[in-house]
Amino acid sequence: MNIKLLKASVEDAKELTEVSITTFDDDSRRFFNRDAGGPPGYDSIKEQEKRINEQIYYKICDDEKIIGATVLTKQDELHMELSAIFIMPQYQDKGIGQDIIQKLEELYPKAKKWSLDTPSVCVRNHYLYEKLGYQKVNEMMLDQKTNLKLYFYEKNIG
Question: According to DSSP H, which parts of 55-150 are helical?
Answer without folding.
Answer: 96-107, 123-131
